[in-house]
Design a protein that fits this description.
Layout: E1 8-10, E2 15-17, E3 20-23, E4 29-30, E5 44-48, E6 52-56, H1 91-98, E7 102-105, H2 113-123, E8 128-134, H3 136-140, H4 154-160, E9 171-176, H5 185-195, E10 200-204, H6 217-226, E11 230-234, H7 260-269, H8 272-279, E12 284-289, E13 295-297, E14 302-307, E15 319-327, E16 334-340, E17 344-349, E18 364-369
Parallel strand pairs: 3-11, 7-8, 7-10, 8-9, 10-11
Antiparallel strand pairs: 1-2, 3-4, 5-6, 12-18, 13-14, 14-17, 15-16, 15-18, 16-17
Length: 378
């Protein structure tokens, strides 16, 4: 572990550490200084915001050490499905919110345990924010696809990270990709420093940025140093179950790290236990039920059926899933079975009085957290 004596720069936003920090089992702190000597330390103290001290201790991070929460531990937050996908903050609108904060950089599609680790490290330096860029598919001509986390459910997930982040839930801000796609790496960092006024950034070791992804983590470190911001580069959180079945040999960036692509592949296989390990929580699928005629019941069971067009995020593969949990607003989770076919998703509950549906509403959002896929044996 290497460290150099720190210096600080007052930006009118609190005292910011103008430094570079490599975090994980070993980490490097580098800050502008006239001295070139390094010394070994067991922890590093950084002055931030009125000289409050934050200390970093090296540690290994793996999915086995990050426990998932059950459906009953995380509240269900109602969604507003009328929100438009392009209703994201512009740089000028983000300024007052992220100024002086520590911003984690990434795409944050799955909000998996690797993303959570970025937020954890950001929270150790200052107020944690996630800053991502949306609308990439439309600009780059990619085929549209369901998000892993429903847009209206992202706030709930971030709230569940608060215990890991000093009891502070990270805030997320999304900027349209089209507004930044032509920025060079230097222009991108200049925007962070001068337009958004952030105090520092946290990124993974494989992070790329700038036009045509020209900048890498080392370039980010150099440019942040130039603009007086802290740059905190963390090691990838690795999939502890990585093997040849999970590796994507067509993706040269896949070194066995936890990724949104890996989550998508696990969902496509119906491996919900593995999905939960990657996410650090059960996968929650949201449906917007608009037709009450889809609700049917018998004397012993109650069934809900809805077309796949009602899905607000990515479902697992078609099949039959046992020991699932149905969530409706603030009500207690209800155990159910879920069957997914080519066109519809079906839920079945044993108790007809267990399902709380508000018939006064024209539509209602239901949440499903999945148990394991039942494999039919011949």
């Amino acid at each position: 572990m290497l460290a150099r004596s720190s210096s600080h720069q007052y930006l009118g936003l609190g005292f910011c550490s103008a430094g570079i920090l490599q975090l994980s089992s070993s980490f490097l702190v580098k800050v502008p200084s006239s001295s070139s000597s390094y010394s070994s330390v067991s922890s590093v103290a950084l002055v931030y915001n009125n000289f409050h001290i934050h200390r970093f201790h090296p540690r290994f991070v793996s999915s086995s050490s990050l426990q998932s929460k059950s459906a009953g531990d995380i509240p269900f937050l109602p969604c507003s499905v009328s929100q438009q996908e392009d209703d994201h903050e512009k740089p000028s609108e983000v300024l007052s919110a992220v100024a002086g904060g520590i911003v984690a950089l990434g795409k944050f599609d799955a909000l998996h345990i690797g993303h959570r680790e970025l937020a954890i490290q950001a929270s150790k330096v200052g107020a944690p924010y996630l800053l991502s860029f949306v609308g990439m598919a439309e600009v780059l001509g990619w085929e549209p696809r369901h998000p892993i986390v429903a847009r209206c459910d992202r706030g709930r997930v971030l709230s569940s990270w608060a215990p890991y982040c000093g009891n502070v839930a990270p805030k997320e801000f999304q900027i349209q990709f089209r507004s930044v796609r032509h920025l060079s790496p230097r222009q991108f960092v200049e925007m962070l420093a001068e337009e958004l006024g952030v105090c520092g950034v946290v990124a993974g070791e494989n992070y790329r940025f700038g036009y045509k992804a020209a900048g890498d983590a080392l370039e980010l470190v150099r440019l942040c140093d130039e603009f007086g911001m802290g740059a905190y580069i963390i090691n990838s959180v690795m999939d502890r179950h990585q093997d040849s079945r999970n590796m994507n040999f067509y993706d040269l960036k896949d070194k066995g790290q936890v990724s949104s692509t890996r989550v998508r592949h696990a969902l496509a296989e119906g491996d919900m236990k593995f999905v939960s390990e990657l996410l650090g929580r059960p996968h929650r699928l949201l449906l917007n039920i608009e037709d009450r005629e889809n609700l049917t019941s018998t004397s012993s069971t109650q069934r809900v059926s809805a077309p796949k067009s009602s899905l607000l995020n990515l479902p697992p593969k078609d099949g039959f899933y046992e020991n699932c949990a149905l969530l409706v607003r603030e009500h207690k989770p209800v155990t159910c079975r879920v069957s997914i076919d080519t066109t519809r998703i079906h839920l079945e509950m044993d108790r007809i009085d267990s399902f709380y549906y508000d018939y006064s509403q024209n539509s209602q959002v239901l949440g499903i957290e999945f148990g394991e896929l039942r494999v039919n044996r011949v």
